[in-house]
Specification:
single chain; Cytochrome Bc1 Complex, Chain D, domain 2; 10 helices
Length: 384
């Protein structure tokens, strides 16, 4: 009875999926919101219906022959080994079909790689486990991570129902914002392992490979929010590095650009401010929850044999400069946070770790000190 119900449910999903490519449960590709994505969809549908037609002809002929030429009707099997005419026919027809399919496929592939005449360029760098974006024409730079609500809900023992979180695991703190009706060139690379940047509505995905640059382009015609994910198994938090692209009208995009530049100036100003230890600890708790708790646990206990504990760690309760150096450069499975976190976030989480989670060292470090160390580290990496 249970299997019968499952079969009925599966058939219901099948019928609902056939009706719309944009349904919640679908068996088809989505059309997307770009010319390329529509070309890919149309090419897919051409191939699908050709396969359906070939299947109907082949299986129809086979079933007809089996039924009307069966032994019970007095038929006997013909004794022959080959038929030159038939072999020529079933060679020529598939060749023609492949050529017909290859023409739009080749055109679409060439079009996908044509980044010429792009009006702006965005560099995308994959990190374990977040995305770095640089708008090369606007001098805008930020990291994009899993949003705070999803991050809290995914923690072991959080007690939060994931279904109560809007766009669970598909939302970020800093989305990519682009203008509509603009050809945008994307450059892709990675800082650690191979990732893959994939937004289905755009119609393509690209690997981000350390030491290499891949490129693609898009031009979105419809304003809206489009979501994707890393499509390459990149480590234990692979499922927690989504992508959100917001396409805006050009006037709204211009406003967003000015807002980002103002935020950058505010961050610079905040890095030069003298922060109290209490202010750093309060801010650092949030930074820890968003960047460290998934491995070291919310209470700093870690996971035995996998991730070391923060509570009572010799590194944390030892020399602060050694701890900062480790966090800056990373080690083993721990990513290098030197480039990921702003000076304020880095200083605050460092101070929080040393004065929370069961630790009581009592010291702190200022964002201005972190900023200088980040600048020195960046200069060394540039020289290398």
């Amino acid at each position: 009875m249970k299997k019968t119900k499952q079969l009925i449910a599966a058939l219901s999903l099948l019928l609902s999926g056939i009706g719309s490519a944009q349904a919640d449960y679908t068996l088809n590709l989505m059309k997307g919101v770009t010319r390329i994505s529509n070309e890919v969809y149309d090419m897919h549908m051409i191939a699908l219906w050709i396969c359906v037609a070939v299947g109907v002809v082949v299986f129809g002929t086979m079933f007809y022959s089996i039924y009307y030429h069966r032994k019970s009707m007095g038929h006997e099997a013909e004794q022959f080994h080959e038929n030159t005419t038939v072999e020529i026919i079933w060679t020529i027809i598939p060749t023609i079909i492949l050529v017909v399919m290859a023409i739009p496929a080749t055109k679409a592939m060439i079009d996908m790689d044509d980044t010429s005449e792009a009006e702006m360029t965005i560099k995308v760098t994959g990190w374990q486990w977040k995305w770095e974006y640089e708008y090369l024409d606007e001098d805008i730079h930020f990291f994009s991570s899993l949003d705070e609500e999803s991050n809290r809900a995914r923690q072991i023992g959080s007690g939060i129902d994931p279904t109560s979180v809007p766009h669970y695991l598909l939302n970020v703190d800093n989305p990519v914002v682009i203008p509509v009706h603009t050809k945008i060139r994307f450059l892709f690379t990675a800082a650690d392992v191979i990732h893959a940047w994939w937004v289905p509505d755009l119609g393509w995905k690209k690997d981000t490979v350390p030491g290499f640059i891949n490129e693609s382009w898009t031009e979105v015609d419809v304003p809206g929010t489009y979501r994707g994910q890393c499509a390459e198994l990149c480590g234990q938090d692979h499922g927690f590095m989504p992508i959100v692209v917001i396409a805006m009208e050009k006037a709204d995009y211009a406003v967003w650009v000015e807002e980002q530049k103002a935020l950058a100036l505010a961050e610079q100003s905040a890095a030069q401010k003298e922060w109290s230890k209490e202010e750093l600890i309060a801010k650092g708790e949030t930074v820890y929850a968003n960047n460290c708790a998934s491995c070291h646990m919310a209470d700093g206990a870690g996971m035995a044999g996998v991730f070391p504990a923060i509570s009572g760690s010799p590194i944390v309760i030892g020399d602060i400069d050694a701890q900062v150096d480790l966090m800056m450069k990373g080690q083993g499975m721990m990513p290098a946070f030197g480039q990921m976190l702003s000076p304020v976030d880095f200083a605050s989480v460092t101070t929080f770790i040393r004065n929370g989670l069961g630790n009581a060292v009592g010291d702190s470090i200022q964002p201005s000190v972190i900023q200088k160390q980040q600048s020195t580290l960046a200069a060394v990496e540039d020289d290398e």
